[in-house]
C-alpha cells in the first residue's frame, strides 16, 4: 500500500482534478475517478505512483522509469485504448507522488460480465476480431501490453466495443525501480498468474507473442468460466482445456499455438491470428449488455402501410437506432443506412397526409430519400423552423465534412458511436436532444469535436 494518504472525495489535485471516488489501490498507489474542471467536468482516471522507497536517489530513478513508460503510452492513439492525457508531479502530505491522467471508460470489465454468463465460441471469435487489430497497432509501436486478462478488457457502454486498459509496462517500470532500490526480486509481479506466459513470469521478458498467449488464456476463461489454474495441468505442464469445453477445430488449433510454451513456437503477430480466425454466424446470440429497445407495435392501422425506414436523429442529431415509435397516429420514420447530421423526421400518418419536419442542411438529401416512399403519400412544403437561422454556414459545412469523411471510410454505425461517446462524456444532458438554439451551440461544437477525433483515429488505423 502506498505511504501517501488517500485523496478525499471532493478534494482537488493541482486545482484541476476533483476527486469523485477511489477506484482501487495496489502496491504502488491508488486509482481515482475524477472530474477535469478545465475540460467541462469530463470524467477521467488518475493513476497514482507512490512506491514505498525511502532513498531519494532510488525514488528519483523510479520516477524516471515511470515517466519514461508513461511517455510511450501517451503516444498511443487508438479508439480502443484510453487516451493518456497528462503526467503530473504532485505533493501529498509532504510526499512526492506521480499521476497518470487518462480517459475514463464507462462500462464493465469482461471479468464482471463473466459473472453473468460465459461467452459462446461465436462471441469470443468476434471479440478476437475486435481486439487483435488493437494488439497489432500497439505492437507496431513497439509496445507490449504485458497484462491482458478479463479484468483489463472493458466492454465500453458507449459503443459495445472492447477496450484495452491498464498497460503492464508502467507496472514493469515501477517494479524494476522498486526491485533495484530494495534488492528484492519482484519479477513475479509482471503479469497475472495463469495469464502471463513463462518468459514473462520467470525472466521478466515480454514479446508480441506474450500478449497473444495471455489473450488465448483470456478466451478460454471467458468461454469456460474456469480459472486458468483449472484449465492447466501442472503435473504435465500442458493446457487441458478440452476437458472442460468443446470448440471448433479451427479455433482450437489457433488457441493451442498461441499457448505454446516457447515464444518462438507461437504466432509472431496479431495479424497472423486475425487472418486465421474462423467465420462464424450470429456472433451475439445472447447479448451481454442490455439489448436495444424493441419496436413499439403500431396501434394505427394506417402505419402498417408505411415502410419501415432507419430514423436519423433520435436525439435531435444523428443516429440510426432501430426503434420505431407509434403513438396516437404519429410515428418516427427511419432512413436505412443514412448517417446524417441534425435530421429529425416526424411523420404524422393521418389520412389527410404526412407532415415532415427536418433539421437544417439536410432537407435536399432527406427529400430524395423520402420520395422513395409509396406515391400515395404526399409531402407538403417544408415548414419554417424558427431556430434554423442560428446554425451558421461554417457549422453546417463542418457537419457536411464529417458526413463526407465517415462515408469515405465506410464505417458502420459511425454516428451512433459518436452519439454514445458524446452522451457518455456529458451525462448531465441525460440523453436529451440537442437543439439548434444558441444555448446548445457549445454542445453541438463538442459533438463535432468528438466526431472529428474519432474520424482521425479511424483514418490512422486504416492507414496502418
TrEMBL record:
Its EC number is 2.7.11.1. Keywords: ATP-binding, Kinase, Nucleotide-binding, Serine/threonine-protein kinase, Transferase. It comes from the Bacteria. It is an enzyme of class 2 (transferase). SUPFAM superfamilies: Protein kinase-like (PK-like). ATP binds at residue 47. GO terms for molecular function: kinase activity. Residues 17-280 form the Protein kinase domain. InterPro entries: Kinase-like_dom_sf, Prot_kinase_dom, Protein_kinase_ATP_BS, Tyr_kinase_AS. It catalyses: L-threonyl-[protein] + ATP = O-phospho-L-threonyl-[protein] + ADP + H(+); L-seryl-[protein] + ATP = O-phospho-L-seryl-[protein] + ADP + H(+). PROSITE patterns: PROTEIN_KINASE_ATP (PS00107), PROTEIN_KINASE_DOM (PS50011), PROTEIN_KINASE_TYR (PS00109). This is non-specific serine/threonine protein kinase. It comes from Floridaenema fluviatile BLCC-F154.
Amino acid at each position: 500500500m502506498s505511504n501517501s494518504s488517500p485523496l478525499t472525495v471532493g478534494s482537488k489535485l493541482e486545482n484541476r482534478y476533483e476527486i469523485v471516488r477511489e477506484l482501487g489501490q495496489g502496491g504502488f498507489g491508488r486509482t481515482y475517478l475524477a472530474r477535469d474542471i478545465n475540460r467541462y467536468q469530463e470524467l477521467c482516471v488518475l493513476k497514482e505512483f507512490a512506491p514505498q522507497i525511502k532513498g531519494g536517489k532510488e525514488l528519483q530513478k523510479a520516477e524516471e522509469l515511470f515517466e519514461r513508460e508513461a511517455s510511450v503510452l501517451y503516444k498511443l492513439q487508438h479508439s480502443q485504448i484510453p487516451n493518456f492525457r497528462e503526467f503530473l508531479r504532485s505533493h501529498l502530505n509532504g510526499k512526492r507522488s506521480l499521476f497518470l491522467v487518462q480517459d475514463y471508460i464507462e462500462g464493465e470489465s469482461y471479468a464482471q460480465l463473466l459473472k453473468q454468463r460465459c461467452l459462446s465460441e461465436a462471441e469470443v471469435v468476434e471479440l478476437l476480431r475486435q481486439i487483435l487489430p488493437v494488439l497489432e497497432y500497439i505492437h507496431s509501436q513497439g509496445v507490449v501490453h504485458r497484462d491482458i486478462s478479463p479484468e483489463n478488457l472493458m466492454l465500453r457502454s458507449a459503443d459495445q466495443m472492447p477496450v484495452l486498459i491498464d498497460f503492464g509496462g508502467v507496472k514493469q517500470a515501477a517494479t524494476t525501480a522498486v526491485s533495484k532500490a530494495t534488492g528484492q526480486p519482484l519479477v513475479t509481479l509482471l503479469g497475472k498468474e495463469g495469464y502471463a506466459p513463462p518468459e514473462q513470469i520467470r525472466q521478466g521478458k515480454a514479446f508480441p507473442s506474450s500478449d497473444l498467449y495471455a489473450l488465448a488464456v483470456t478466451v478460454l476463461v471467458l468461454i469456460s468460466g474456469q480459472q486458468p489454474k483449472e484449465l492447466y495441468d501442472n503435473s504435465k505442464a500442458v493446457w487441458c482445456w478440452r476437458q472442460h469445453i468443446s470448440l471448433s477445430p479451427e479455433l482450437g488449433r489457433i488457441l493451442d499455438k498461441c499457448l505454446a510454451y516457447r515464444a518462438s513456437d507461437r504466432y509472431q503477430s496479431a495479424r497472423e491470428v486475425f487472418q486465421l480466425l474462423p467465420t462464424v454466424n450470429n456472433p451475439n446470440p445472447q447479448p451481454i449488455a442490455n439489448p436495444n429497445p424493441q419496436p413499439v407495435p403500431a396501434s394505427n392501422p394506417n402505419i402498417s402501410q408505411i415502410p419501415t425506414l432507419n430514423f436519423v436523429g433520435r436525439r435531435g442529431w444523428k443516429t440510426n437506432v432501430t426503434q420505431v415509435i407509434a403513438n396516437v397516429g404519429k410515428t418516427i420514420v427511419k432512413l436505412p443506412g443514412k448517417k446524417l447530421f441534425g435530421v429529425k423526421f416526424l411523420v404524422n400518418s393521418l389520412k389527410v397526409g404526412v407532415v415532415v419536419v427536418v433539421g437544417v442542411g439536410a432537407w435536399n438529401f432527406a427529400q430524395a430519400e423520402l420520395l422513395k416512399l409509396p406515391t400515395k403519400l404526399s409531402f407538403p412544403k417544408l415548414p419554417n423552423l424558427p431556430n434554423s437561422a442560428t446554425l451558421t454556414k461554417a457549422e453546417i459545412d463542418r457537419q457536411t465534412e464529417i458526413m463526407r469523411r465517415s462515408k469515405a471510410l465506410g464505417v458502420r454505425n459511425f454516428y451512433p458511436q459518436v452519439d454514445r461517446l458524446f452522451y457518455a462524456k456529458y451525462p448531465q444532458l441525460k440523453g436529451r436532444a440537442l437543439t439548434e438554439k444558441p444555448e446548445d451551440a457549445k454542445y453541438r461544437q463538442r459533438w463535432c469535436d468528438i466526431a472529428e477525433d474519432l474520424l482521425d483515429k479511424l483514418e490512422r488505423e486504416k492507414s496502418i
